Amino acid sequence: MSLRNQILQRDKGFSHNAVIICILDLAMNQEISLNHLAYKNGHISIDGEGISDERCRAFLDSVQHRLTKIECHGTVKANKGKYTFHMDGSEGEHNAAGGENHGGASALDNP
């Protein structure tokens, strides 16, 4: 069993490590370079670079899809062929905005 799967298996509930590993895994699989990644007290902030606008947007969409308890907002900027992005999010925003109650404590879905 891979190290990623071992950690995710061990941390089935809410886990800071599981969220970070999920984001790192998505970034590596989509050829995204992360410049900044912070996840603390239910708030997330990510800055990075990709090889295209489409690749950056796909990464942001993937993060939002996997972190179902966190409502994320991201932007992509292009400057002289360099594509950068920034994403912020918070666990509380999803429940407040949509009135959803997912139950359980995990921010992660389908690790």
Give the biggest sheet: 4 strands, antiparallel
- SS strand fraction: 25-35%
State the helical fraction.
25-40%
Biggest sheet strand line-up: 1-2-4-3
Number of H/I helices:
4
Report the mean per-residue pLDDT as an integer: 80
Shape: globular
What's the N-to-C terminus distance? 14 Å
Overview of the structural elements:
The protein is α+β, with helices and mostly antiparallel strands. Helices cover 40% and strands 31% of the residues. The protein has helices at 3-10, 16-29, 53-66, 91-98; strands at 33-40, 43-50, 71-79, 82-90. The chain has a four-stranded antiparallel beta sheet with strand order 1-2-4-3. A hairpin with a 2-residue loop joins strand 3 and strand 4. Helix 2 packs antiparallel against helix 3.
Keywords:
111 residues; alpha+beta
How are the secondary structure elements laid out?
Blueprint: H1 3-10, H2 16-29, E1 33-40, E2 43-50, H3 53-66, E3 71-79, E4 82-90, H4 91-98
Antiparallel strand pairs: 1-2, 2-4, 3-4
Helix pairs in contact: 2-3
In short:
The protein has 111 residues and is α+β, with helices and mostly antiparallel strands. It contains four helices and four strands, in the order ααββαββα.
